[in-house]
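Follow-up to my post from last week.
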Amino acid sequence: MVGYHDRHDTRRCFALTDRPARTPFLHQRRLFSGDARPPVPAWKASEAASRYEIPPPTTEFKDLENIDETSDKTFSYLMVGAFATLGAFSAKALVTNYLSNLSAAADVLAVSKSEINMSAVPEGSNLLIKWQGKPVFVRHRTAEEIAEADSVDLSELRDKQTDAERFPNQEWSVMLGVCTHLGCVPVGESGEYGGWYCPCHGSHYDISGRIRKGPAPLNLEIPPYNINEDEGTIVIG
Amino acid sequence: MYDGAFDSVHWRIAVFVKRSSAFTASIVVSAFAFEVAFDTVTDRIWDTLNHGRQWKDLKARLEAASDE
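User reply:
Got it. Predicted complex:
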């Protein structure tokens, strides 16, 4: 039997066992035990009996057996799933924000590009612009110039590249205006091959920017660029 | 006495949680869906609060003005 005041810290079905209430640890001493009932005079016996009567359990064992475990489990799984979803979302957002923090800002990226209006460069003329501190030659080539660039035999070239390899859109040539010899800026529409001529040490480049004569070892470098036909612009970078 | 993991009423849930792999997969998929929904809703709230003040609104207005 348990003490005259029922326990509230356990489910009632465990409280209603035949085991006496015990102190959980040996070093604990009860100053007042529920089992110790104050003495009651004999003439008050009936009153004492009603006062100390153990109330009937409000939960029967068969009620405990009929608890719907399935809906409990469903609820638990749904809660676990919902918080896991939130956690996955937060973790992804955290990683994305951290990585985007490492990449270059939009203003830095914008400075690293140069845009050219194609309508400002008529056929057969050059445009010299600055891209990332380097000169860039843009030329709107005529049909004869394209044919001339295509007609060159690869065996004549020091750095063997066809014109179509260099410029997918052969109407426009875009290349860095830096001589591959020692980095001077070549002069346009001059030299023995009708292209560029470097006055520093006499390198001759043809209309495709390929080295033909002189000390330079390589063709003029081509920067990454995009031709946007719809907007009529060339974006370098 | 209750025996199995799920009865027929909860079979729909059981499909997603019975195997840990299916549970994880459904969490990943629902996280993706939640992200899309969350972004859409928050973007819409932002656009509503800042209606007429954003570049896309200004751009439309400027283009309309330059056409006239």
